Amino acid sequence: MRTRALLAFGLFICAATSPCQSVKPAATLTVIRAGSLIDTASGELKKNQLIFIRGERVETVTDGSAAIPPGAQVIDLSRATVLPGLIDSHTHIFLWGEDPAKGGYDANILKAGIALRAARATFAAKRSLEQGFTTIRDLETEGAGYGDVEIKQAIEEGTIPGPRVFASTRGISSTGGYPLEGYAPELQMPKGVQIIDGPVEARKAAREQLDHGADWIKVYMTHRSWVDKQGRLYSQPTLTVEELTAIVNEAHGWRKKVACHAYNGEGLQRALDGGCDSIEHGLEITDAQIAQMARQGTWYCPTLAVYFTDWAPADTPEGKRDRARANLHEVSFGKALKANLKIVYGTDIGGMPWTDSMAQEFKRMVDGGMPPIAAIQAATVRAAELLGEPGEVGVVAPGAYADIVAVEGNPLEDITVLEKVKFVMKGGGMFKNDFDAGHCGTSAGKP
Ligand SMILES: [Zn+2]
What we know:
Helices cover 33% and strands 24% of the residues. It has helices at 2-21, 104-110, 114-130, 147-156, 199-211, 241-253, 265-273, 287-296, 317-338, 360-367, 372-378, 381-386, 437-440, and strands spanning 30-39, 44-54, 57-63, 73-84, 86-91, 133-138, 164-167, 172-174, 194-196, 216-220, 222-227, 233-237, 257-262, 278-281, 299-301, 342-343, 404-408, 423-426, 429-433. A hairpin with a 2-residue loop joins strand 2 and strand 3 (57-63). The radius of gyration is 22 Å and the shape is globular.
C-alpha cells in the first residue's frame, strides 16, 4: 500500500513537471496557435498561423483557419510572437566569467575541479535553453578538455536539459598565445587551450580534437592586445599561415569548419590567408580585409556586447584598450553590414557570467545599424547555414526540428522583448510555457 502511494506520488511529480522540464517530444500531434509568426526564411511577419508538430519535427505551417484534427494537443500562443529557437554561435559553457574580483580567468582553471566545472556547464546549458537559445556553437572548453562533447551527450540522451551543441573541444593556440600565464617559468602551468608549434603539431592537434568529437575547430589567431604609443590598437599574432593552413586543411577533410578568434592586424590577415571559415570578434577589419571576407565567403561573428561592458577605468592602459576596442568594433560592424558580409549572432557568454542575458547582443546589433529582422536572421537562418544545418534549425518550416520560442510583443518593433522569452520548445518537447502558468508554471524560467 505504502509502495503504491509512493509510486502514485512519483507519477504525480512526473506529471506535474515533465511537460516543461523534459524535452521529450509528445507522441501525438501538437498544434501551436501563433498570434504572429516570424518567417525567418522570407523575413515576413505572418499573422494567425498554425504550426503542426509531430514527434520532434514540424509537419506543416498553415493559416489559422485550417482545421485542427480532434485529439491534437493545442498550445495557445495567440497573444504571442512565435519564432524559431535562437542560435548563439559563440558560447563557452565551461567558462564561469572573468571578473578580476573573483580571480579572473585563471580561477576557472586553478580553483575549480572537473566535477564543479561540469556542474557549472550543466547550469549554463539549462540557462541557454530557458532563454530560448535551442542551439549553440560552443567555442572551446577553456581547459576542460573534451567536456563539451560529454555535456552534449548528456543533453542528447535526455539526462540534462540543454540546447543542441556544436562542440569545438579544446581550442588551439601557439606557445605564448594563451593563459595561464604570468607564473614562475619553473612551473608547468595548465593552459586554457591545446598549444601547438609548427604545422605538424597543428595538424596533429586538429586530428586529435576531431577524433574526440569536435564539430568545429577553434583557433586563436591573436592573443594580447594593447594601445600602442601612436594610439592604435595592436594585437599580437599567434599561429603562422602555415600552421593554420594545416588545421584548416585537416578540418575540411573531415567536412568540419574552423573558427578563428582574431582581433585585427597581422593575426586577422593570417586567419583570412589561412582560409578560416569564421572570424570571431574581428574588432578592426580593414577595407581590404572586408573585401577578402566577401570574396572568400568568410562568416563574421562579431560578439559586440561583451566589448561594451565592464571597461577598466579610463586613465589606465586597460581602460584605454577597452575603449579603443569598442570604438573600432562599431566601425567594423558597420563596414561588414554595408558590404553585406555573412554575419551571425554570438555572445561570447561565459566570458560574461551565465546569469547575464544571452539576448543582449540583439540590441547591440540593432544599435550598430542592423535591421531587427536581420539580427533575428543572424540568430536563426544564417546561423543554421554557418552550422551546415539549413532547413533543420533556424526556421519554423515543414521538416525542421520543432525548436520554437515565443515572446510577448513584437521583436521587429522592440528587439529587447527577446530578452524575455516566455515559451521554449526543443525538438517537439516543451521546456517552458510562461503564457500558461496553470500548465507549466514559471519554475523553469529562473536560474
Ligand atoms: Zn570566446
